[in-house]
Amino acid sequence: MSAIVSVQNLRKAYAGGFEALKSVNLDIEEGEILALLGPNGAGKTTLISTICGITVPTSGTVTVGGHDTQKAFRGARALIGLVPQEINLEPFETVMNTVRFSRGLFGKPRNDAYLEDILKQLSLYDKKDNKVMTLSGGMKRRVLIAKALSHEPRVLFLDEPTAGVDVELRKDMWEVVAKLKASGVTIILTTHYIEEAEAIADRVGVINKGEILLVQNKADLMSQMGRKQLKIELSAAVETIPDALADYELTRADDGFSLLYHYDTKGERTGITTLLADLQKAGLQMKDLQTQQSSLEDIFVGLVKETT
Questions:
Q1: In this structure, what are the phi and psi dihedrals at residue 82, rounded to the nearest 5 degrees?
Q2: pTM
Q3: Which of 20, 118, 221, 235 could pair covalently with 285 via S-S, beta carbons 3.0-4.6 A apart?
Q4: Buried b (16+ CB within 10 A) or exposed e, 44-58
């Protein structure tokens, strides 16, 4: 796949000297879902705003579909749909008119059949003649997505699309995103929800303090950086970990009935076999063993901690 969005040495600094973006380089492939993770103030929204041409960069370049966002803004912006964090809609207008107006802003000819199809995909068709003020928060977010898709963009940016949405509606939104990808739309979303990235992203990017820490295939990221945890349940509680097991860096549970052992999935040897043998030598009797793979959240937290 080729890059539909290319960011090269992008920097954004403000008058006071604060650098929101620090030489960011990022290629987004056509047809993929990229999840951009980062804590508050990491630069996620600034990056999206700059790519969309809303924020003027201090230096660096951004191209969308081959169009430079500074030199050929109209060509680049025509390819982009943006769903902002804030819900800012005309409350007394109907859903259909709201979406129709957005399409007109991009100079597209009227095409109600296309717009109705979008509303059906977003489960909004039965609300098309309702005023926006009568909709729930989750429905309003769907209207924002419909507006962003109204002019048939090839790239869709979703800035915290499920913020304030309950778990059930969040999962519905994931299904919507999957359908959009299937139709050929490239999707970039920022999120605070780690499970969102795990559920729908092809690649995961981590940004902190205006710098991209990594961009990697989700599965590769999990396998290369993930660690496993072995939980050893004991037949009898222990107050302290025997000195003979000190090299394993075990962690004792508060109740003393289990021990935790962490090991690297990339290592040639996990050390589990010798650990279990040494447990017996130390007089500890095992009741059960459980393993758990590190989550993307564990990896994310570890990366951010390294830069703080």
A1: -125, 125
A2: 0.76
A3: 235
A4: bbbbbbbbbbebebe
Non-local CB neighbours of 149 within 8 Å, separated by 6+ positions = 81, 118, 156, 180, 185
Signed CA dihedral, 189, 190, 192, 195: sign only: positive
The arrangement of secondary structure in 3-223, i.e. its CATH architecture, is 3-Layer(aba) Sandwich (3.40)
Query: Is residue 107 classed as helix, strand or coil in its secondary structure?
Result: coil
Question: Alpha-carbon distance 153 to 158, whole Å?
Answer: 13
Q: Token pair of 271, please? A: 């050390």
Question: Where do you find CATH 3.30.70 in the chain?
Answer: 228-293
Residue 74 is predicted with a pLDDT of 92
Domain with CATH 3.40.50.300 in the chain: 3-223
Residues of the chain with pLDDT under 70: 1, 163-167, 222-227, 265-268, 293-298, 301, 303-308
Instruction: Look at the block and give the residue holding tokens 């004792």.
Output: 252
Specify the pLDDT at position 6. Answer: 96
CATH class of 228-293: alpha beta
Residue 189: CB partners within 8 Å, gap ≥ 6? 33, 34, 35, 36, 157, 158, 159, 161, 177, 196, 201
